[in-house]
Write a structure and sequence with these properties.
Layout (H helix, E strand, L loop, with lengths): L2 H12 L3 E7 L5 E6 L7 H19 L5 E4 L4 H16 L4 E10 L5 E5 L7 E5 L7 H11 L5 E10 L11 H9 L2 E7 H8 L3 E2 L2 E2 L3 H14 L3
Parallel strand pairs: 3-4, 3-6, 6-7, 7-8
Antiparallel strand pairs: 1-2, 4-5, 9-10
Helix pairs in contact: 2-3
Length: about 220
């Protein structure tokens, strides 16, 4: 596993973004882990987060794209932080773009924030996590309505590795199949478990034998076969 991925796993735990215990998800599933990207709140956290995203995007998509699109609302700070990091790390000026939940009809009118999209733009979508793929259903038509653009791919921070809406493959695989563009994550839950299992982190063992068993049982029911 790349070093930045190991650092990112520790960063999620340190920032109280990735938690372990017993959680009821929006889907109604009872999960032994939970991720809340809204817990990244400080300048230093957002700076580091942007750099981890930038490294993963560079690894998967290179530098041949023009715009980072962050769907409202959590995608807005993600796209801004990552554009800054991309400029710093790779000397490449990527534009940021996000959508409004409601179209504005005065001043800076329209559905978009940040850069307007132009014909020929190559776009990478950036999100926190994709559990079902529902957000892409909302984002895809917004992007396609802006003109002749190409969606290079999607980058999320964590691949939960759970079955998506179709109940047969993961949400990221469903996105690849349905929309025809790549979908990747900085890390997967398999990498998280591999790295944290019986390993000291933040002063203790995060994933011990008991929690590992709970995670394994969860994936027997909801994981990708």
């Amino acid at each position: 596993m790349e070093q930045y991925k190991e650092e990112f796993i520790e960063f999620m735990v340190e920032s109280n973004v990735l938690k372990f215990g017993s959680f009821t998800l929006k889907s109604g599933r009872k999960s032994p882990f939970f991720m809340n990207a809204g817990a990244y709140t400080t300048g230093s956290q957002l700076m580091r987060l942007g750099e981890y995203y930038a490294r993963a995007i560079h690894d998967n998509y290179g530098t041949d794209f023009d715009v980072l699109f962050g769907p409202a609302y959590k995608g807005i700070p993600l796209s801004v932080a990552t554009c800054i990091a991309f400029s710093k790390l790779y000397g490449r000026e990527i534009r940021y773009c996000s959508n409004r939940k409601e179209e504005k009809d005065h001043g800076d009118a329209g559905i978009l924030l940040g850069s307007k999209l132009r014909d020929g733009d190559r776009v990478v979508i950036i999100e926190d996590v994709t559990t079902s793929g529902k957000s892409i259903e909302e984002t895809f038509p917004i992007l396609k309505a802006q003109g002749n653009i190409e969606i290079v791919g999607l980058m999320v921070s964590l691949n939960r590795m759970e079955v998506g809406l179709g109940k047969e493959m993961s949400a990221l695989d469903e996105i690849r199949t349905k929309y025809g563009f790549a979908a990747n994550a900085i890390v997967s839950m398999a990498e998280v478990v591999e790295y944290l299992y019986n390993r000291p982190c933040q002063g203790g063992i995060i994933i011990d034998d008991t929690l590992k068993t709970a995670i394994d049982e969860y994936y027997k029911e909801y994981g990708v076969k």
